[in-house]
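User: I've been trying to design a sequence by hand for this structure and keep getting stuck. Would you show me what you'd pick, starting by listing the structure so we're on the same page?

Assistant: Good idea, let's start from the same input. This is the structure you sent:
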């Protein structure tokens, strides 16, 4: 289902709701738009950077470019 179809479906359902249910739906939509309990919203640039670093680490692991923390020897 495309975004447009989904928005139309939601709008139609909202149009059919009684006032008390409509207020509950508005509160829920407001909740979805607020920051998460950890203080970050999904659109926070820090979240995007973290996801990028995770993808880069996954790619490095897949390419066997990671070094085990146990391999390097200490200099004495």
């Amino acid at each position: 289902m495309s975004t447009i179809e989904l928005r139309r479906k939601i709008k139609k359902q909202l149009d059919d709701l009684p006032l008390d249910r409509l207020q509950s739906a508005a509160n829920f939509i407001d909740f979805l738009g607020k920051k998460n309990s950890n203080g970050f919203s999904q659109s926070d640039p820090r979240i995007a950077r973290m996801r990028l670093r995770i993808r880069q680490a996954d790619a490095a692991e897949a390419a066997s470019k990671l070094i085990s923390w146990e391999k390097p020897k200490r200099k004495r």
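That's my pick for every position. To get oriented when you compare it with your attempt: The CA atoms of residues 22 and 28 lie 10 Å apart. Residues 3-33+41-62 form one domain.
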